[in-house]
Each structure stands twice: as C-alpha cells, then as structure tokens.
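Thread: Modeling a multi-component assembly for a lab meeting

Hi all, long-time lurker, first post. My supervisor asked me to bring a structural picture of a complex we are working on to next week's group meeting, and I have zero experience with this. I have the sequence lines for every component (1064 residues in total). Could someone generate the structure of the whole assembly? Inputs are pasted exactly as I received them:
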Amino acid sequence: MRTRALIIFGLLALIVALPLAMRRETATTDPRDADDRLVILSPHNETIRQEFGEAFAAYWKKSTGRSIYIDWRTPGGTSEIRMVLDAGFKAAEETGRSGIGVDVFFGGGEPDFSSQARKGRLMPLRVFETQPQLFREGGPVPETFTGERYFPADHVWVATCMSQFGICYNPDVLTRLRVPPPAAWADLADPRYAGTIALSDPTKSGSVARAFELLVQAEMQRAIGVPGADKTAAMGAGWRAGLQLIQRISANARYFTDSASKIPQDVGQGNASAGMCIDFYGRSFAEELTTNSGMPRLVWIAPVGGTTLSADPVAVLKGADHPEIAQNFVEFCLTPAAQTLWFGKPGAPGGPKQRALHRTPIRRDIYTSENLANSTMPNARPYEDPANFTYQRELTGSAFNTLRQIVRVMCIDSHEEMKSAWLALRDAGMPADALAVFSDVSSVDYPIAGKGDKILDAADVLKAAERAAALGNAFRENYRRAEAMARAQSPTAVRR
Amino acid sequence: MKRKNAIVISIGFSILFAIFFFYPAGMIVKQAFEGTKPDGSPAFTLEFFSAIFRNPIYREGLWNAFALGVSSTLATLVIAFPLALIGHRYEFFGKSFLGPLILAPMILPPFVGAVGVKQMLGVNGAFNALLVKVGLMDSDLPYDWLAHGRFAGIVLMNALHLYPILYMNIAAALSNLDPAMEQAAENLGCPPWKRFFRITLPLAMPGVFAGASIVFIWAFTELGVPLVFDYSRVAPVQIFDGLKGLDKNPLPYALTAVLLLVAAGVFAFSKWVLGRSPLGTAPRPKGRTSIQRLSGWPSAACASVFAGIFVLAAIPHAGVLLLSVAGRWYGTVIPDDLTMRHYAEALGNGLVVPSIQNSLLYAGCATLVALTIGVSVAWVIVRSDLKFRNALDALVMMPLAVPGLVMAFGYLSLSQEGKAFHFLIGTGGSPVFLIVIAYAIRRLPYIIRSAVAGLQQSNPALEEAAKSLGASPARTLRRVAIPLIGANLAAGSILAFAFAMLEVSDSLILAQQQQHFPITKAIYTLLSTLGNGTELAAALGVWAMAFLSVAIIGAAILGGKRGGLFKV
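Re: Modeling a multi-component assembly
Sure thing. I ran the full set together rather than chain by chain. Output:
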C-alpha cells in the first residue's frame, strides 16, 4: 500500500512540477510588485492583450518611471461583457457608487460602444483635447469613413483599429463541391454549398448584425443605382432582394455561431466550405494553416461591394478608479508606436514582440511605405481602396434591431424547415413556383419593417415575442409548402 | 436517528440552500415573472410561460430536450450496467488496468473537447481519412458524420460521456450486495437471467436510480454536445442563445424555470416509481467474495467489452491529445507533423501555475464542503421520518438543472460591492469563497445521490446497535455509518472533484483577475491566442487530463480498496 501511495504521489508531484519548471515570467505577471494598476475589460484575444499589455507597461515606465500591472478582465465575448457591465452598473446604481472597479473598455464593435454611451457609462476622452490634430478635418483619424463612425460627437470613445467582415473559404472543399471561389456575398447563395456554410449569429453581436444590415443595404444601393429607377420602388425591391439573399445563404448554412474563431477554424479544417469571417482572424488563420504541399487551406477575401471598415474602439468607463492612467492608455493606443503594433511583423521595428496581430490601424498616416514594408499586410491601403462600399445610415439604420429579429425568425429559428426545403428545391431543379413560396418575404416588406417594425421594436416584450412567433410560424409554413411543391414536381428526388 | 437532529440539519441546510442557491438563481430567473402594468409599474405575470407554450419552436425544444434526456439515460444504462456487472462478478485479463481506464470520459477538458471531436469525426477528420485510406470511402464524397442522424449522434455521445456516473454508482451498489442472496438463488435453481432480474437488479436499484437521475438531468440540460452537432432546436441551446442575445427578453428565464420544474418533477416521479428497493436493506457482505476468475475466451470477451467502450469513449480525448502535438493536422489519420512546442508554450505561460493552485484549492474545498453537507442531508433523507424529506431530496437535484450562465450571473450580481454576497469577496478581490460555494452547490447532487444510495443499502440495525451500546451520534456516524457507505462516498467525491476541476461558467465569470483564474479559465485564455490557440489549449487540456487521471485512479486505489469500489 505504501509503495502504491508513494508511486501515486510521486506521479502527481511530477505532473505538477512540469509547469513549474517550464514557467516563463512576463513583465506584467505579478500585481504586488507594480506601482500602478489599470483594470481593462476586453473581448480582445490573448495575443492582443499580451502585446498591448507589455507595450503599455513599457510606455508607462518610460513616461513616468513607474511600473504598472494590467488587470485584464475577460469574461468572454461581447455578450458576456455586456452582461458584466449591466450587472456591475445596476449594482453601482442601487448602492450609490459611480463606477464598477473597471477603468477601460477596450475592443468590440461600434454598436457595443454606442449602446454603453447611450446608457451614460462612458467618460469624455482627454485625447481629443491633448491631441486635437489627430481628429481635425482630413487628419489621421476621420470622424467617419465608408459610412462608419470612428468617434462620436461627444468624444466618449474612439476607434483604435478597424475591422471588416469578409468571406473565408477552403479551396480544397470548394474543388470538391465544384464551385468557383466566391467573390461576393451573393456567391454564397449557390445551392451547391448546401450544408457547408458557417455563419455568424447576428442576434448576439452588434457587429455581426451590422454585417447583415450591410448585406441588405448593398442590394438596396444597387437597385437605387440603376439609372432611371424610382427610388421608393427601388428601395423596396432592394430590401426584398437583400432579405432573399440572406435566406439563401442561411439555407446553405451549417450553423450560426457567436464564436469568432469557430468559423475560420471549421473552414480551415474543411468541416465547412466557406463562412463569414472577420478580417484579422481570416489573415491569421490563412498564414497559419497550410496543406501538406504548402498551399493555403484558408483564403480570406473582402467581398466586392457590401462590406465597410468598422471601428474597433476604446473607452474610459464612468467612475474609473484610475481615470488618469485610463486616459493615458487611450492616448497611448493612438500613438504611432501602438498603431504599428496592430499590423507589424513580429520582431520588426515597431512590430509586436511575439505574434502578428493582423489588424488594420486606424491612423491614416501610419500607412507609410516604410511601415507597410515592416507589416504583415504590405498591400493594405484601406483609406485608398476604391472597392469600399459606403454605409448609408438613412437607408437601413432605423431597421437595425428589426433586421436582426427578422434574421432570427426567418433563418435561425426556422433553420430545420428552411434547410430541408432548400435541399428539396435543389433536387427538383429550383422550380420557379416553389422557389417563389420559399422566398416570400412580403410579411416583412420595406414599408412594414424597413424603418423598424413597430411591434418587434416595442418596449412590450410580450407583444414583440408574439409577433416574432407569428412571423416565424408563417416562414416555416412557407418552407414546408415550398418543400411539398418541390417534392411533388420531382418524384425521383430523394430526401437527403 | 433522533428526530431533533434531523430537524436541525434540515432547517440549517434549507437556510443555506435558500441563500446560496435559490437567492442567486431566483435573482436571475425572477425576470420571467416580471411583467409591467399599463402604467409602467412592475407586476407579477405568468404570460411569459404561456408565451413559451404557445410558440411551437419552444415546445419542440422542450420536447427534444426531454427525449434526449430519456434516450441518453437509457443508452447510458445499456453501457454502464453490463460494465458494472462484469466488473462485479468476474476477474478477467487486464481488469486492474481496464477498470480505471473506463472512467476516462469524466476528465475531458472543456472547450477543446468539442474541437477534438471535430478533428476525429469531421468531414476532413481522422476517421474519414482512415476510411479513405483503407478504400472504404471516396475522398471526393466524404460522409458528414456530425450532420446526419444528429439526434442519435447526441444520444450516443451523451451516453459515452456520462456512463461513468452511472457505472460508479452501480458499482458501489453492487459492492454493497450480500453475495449470499445471489448464491441462495443459484442454489435454489434460479437461472442466471432470472436471478439478475429478480435479485441483482432490484438490490442494486438505489445505485441505478442515483446514477440515472443525475444522467437524466445532465442530458436533459446538456448544452455542449448539441452544439457540436449544430442541433439548436433543444431547450438548453435556446436558453443559451436567448441569454446571450442582444435583446432583453425574459423568455430564456421562463424557459429555465420550466426546465427546472420538469427536472424536479421527473426526479420526484421516478423516485416514487423506481427509487425504493422492494427488498429493503441488506446487511453488509461479510467479506465473502463471489468473484469468478475467468480464463480463455470468456476472459478475452470481458476484456474486449471494457477495451471497446474505452476506445469509443476516448475518441474526443484522442482528438485533444493529437491536437496538442500537432504541427499540421489536416485530412490525415494522425498529424503529419508532430511537435512538442505547444507544451513548452502553454505550460510555460505565467497563467498556468497559479491556475493549478487555484483549481486545486477551489475544487478541493468545494468537494469537502459538498461532502459534509451532502452526507448530513442524505442521512435526513434516508434515516429520518420527516414528512418533507422527499421534497428535500427533489430540491437538492435542482442545482444540476440550472444553466451555468444563469447561476454565474446570479452570483456575480450579488457579489458586487454593497450587495448581499460581497462579504464573500476577499481582499484584493479574491473570489475563493464565492467560487467554492458556487462549485459546491452544483456538485452537491453527486454526493447526495451516492450517499443516499449507500445509506439505503446499509442496514440501520448496525447503527442502532452502536447507539444502544452507548456511542454518540457523531461516533456512530464516524465509526459505523460512514465506513459502511465508503464506496458510495468515494464515487460521489471523485465525480464532484473532477467536475469541479473542469467547471466552466462560474470559472469564466467569477474569477475576474488573472491571479484567481482556475485551470478552465486558463485553457479558455490560451484558446484565444492567435495562430495556435487551439493547440495551446489542447496542451493544457492534456495536462489537466493527466493530472485528473492520476488523481482519480490514485483515489480509487487508495480509498476505494477499503470501500470496495474498484476491485484493483
């Protein structure tokens, strides 16, 4: 017995000793030795946290002579962060405190920051006073670009870099499915993709919801752009075409996920053929994943017409315990040294220490040929890209919430019926009458929902739930009917 | 047992349970009952519940969850009972080695487990690569295992993940059986099958019920496995989607309340139908062993059943292990480029060592707390004649059925400065007490079920004898009652400890500062490294698997011997 116990405890000790022996100390590991402290709530990935944490600590030491410990709070993605902020500020309000013990909110999408700003949880940023030249007309950080806002009029947040939704695809799987590489969102509607597309979930993230909104808006802009078109009619037709495009892409979808990395992971591994993917994940996975013969397993593209360059902001939270350091952190994020971290090659001058972040800096003046030569994306010139599309808030902005609900009831909640009908349609050769039933979006036409559906957006959640349920039932009924019609027309088609 | 003691324990426990379970869970779930009057003031409402039952999507989701729960429990039973019975009856080739191995599913680390499954069973996964290689599949037409027959797939994966819970409980129950009963039946000419159904199964029923009730609630509320199969029309996924949604919608809370009621209802009903052993309690076996030594074909057959189950159950683990050493792994059976660099990077990360200390502290303390509370409550449930003891029994199962996120945010909002649980936050924001309580409450059912099963089987006459000879209640408990149910307590504690070490929601939400992260949050953090995040997370996951395997097998060898849980 004693020998057995000795063996077991010996083994356990060995297993525990392994990480002890391999441990590497990093600059900001121990809070006790630091003079200062900064609490940052962030959905940014570990690589960004590490690089920015170390760079800011070095900057702080250089400018003040003091060491700093960065306390990263990472409860998860933007959903969890929203819940943590809500729980914190609710308690703070009830107990009469002004802050929640967090200084900085770093990373996310413009919708996340705007919604916190609306609740009055963000402080005006000092950088707008100390560095006004950054924000002047035609300066390094424009107020808006491609229709996206990079800082609000009340200066409570500012973008530090930008991101773009695009398409990632696996060339091997595309060859197997015999489809050409996609160039635009509409290409993902090809029924040969059935069951293999990976989509992001617009109900859980404001940025993804915006990406779906852009998809609809691109169709509207196209319809309006036709010479001689009646604008009102074109807006309606474009809205319908946009919703139908979302339907078809969703019908090809395998799932809707709220995990940003799951999609490039599945595509790179060949479990999905193509998917919606944010630019830096696409670039990072494209660099990392190759086939045995050295060919890329994942290609990321910005689809032609239909994607904007959206802000990835930073803000200081109300009632911060360390407001001075927090304001300094924001100022640091806009320095050239921090900006080149976003896209520099690891180890290159001004670049990150360990890993490339693959992100596009916000400052226009950072895209010099010298910086680009030291970067992982030498061809990036976002401010000069003629293919950029411009978001027009007046077209779909007020339908932002409604559109997300429509996608939920039309595609996510009804996904089983939708997929089944889509396969039946495909096998029957897409008969026009059944396809028309499948694509019937008249219940959410532009005059009804285009400016925001009054019931879906209403404060009365019960009524909204009721309306959503009714819409969902109607869509599922359409899908079942379309499936029956398609099957009736192709008696040989087998259910897959 | 003195009635007064039972009342004191019940009241004390009820207060604790109300404060640390119903209060935080209720804080969140109460939103399901909060309507607004026309003038905007809040009012009690049941409208959200009727909205759930009016929506066919939610009805289907609930039904699917229930069907998954029942099917998974049956499938788990089909795997676990034969294993436990073979282990109990026979000595066969490699038993001492295979016995602990089949507990492997319990130690699958979170997050990377799902990736491991996909690496093995995905379209371009290892299994298809193997089939292509041996010529059974056309590489142009790979089969999508995770997209077809998803219901059956989820049931199978649930069963392969959950059978150790049932196996350990049944094994403990069988080890408490008096072999004389079976021998008597045999001597009287009872054929083996009849003997099984008339003697063995009824006598082992407390263990079957203990394990099956946990497995049912687990499978009924399971989130991860349906997500691997992209199966979203099932209530736990609908709750998860709703909770994380941008809309402030109370429907997911109403759905949570429905899930809780169904879980408690099914538990109470099945306890009423199955929970009691018709044969009553039996005296403890007196060391006579009925183990039959097998050789030749029968021995090999038993060994291959154990080995086969292990191989199937360890598919995700193999995926994680291979991932942790993979330089490149794409469309091949094993990675075509093997490396140890992920281990150097992952284990060397400054997060890891403190996270190991934290996890051991959190999970160890939580298991002790759950054990202390659980044994006392189990005693009240089995030995007292209090009227509400059956209600108490159904109540203590509820922590298993509450979604992790709901509990975690309940604790989070109550532990904010100025709120009721803020006293649990130590200096420097240390969440030790909060996490220990959160872990312990959710692991309580494992201990209580095992302890209840053990007490039902052990003979109260032995405790009464001790008392009549002048032993105090504490001494009776320490010297007689607990040693008699040692195997059951070992089973329950091992499950509680392992699942606490691998806990996700409370760990992600409540451990806010880096120096307080448990291992699961360290794995989650590594996972978000750009480039090789999955491999890094897999490497730390493998470390956790190695540690838990040695700890569990060690506990089984050292502690189980006495209780007779594992005949190794």
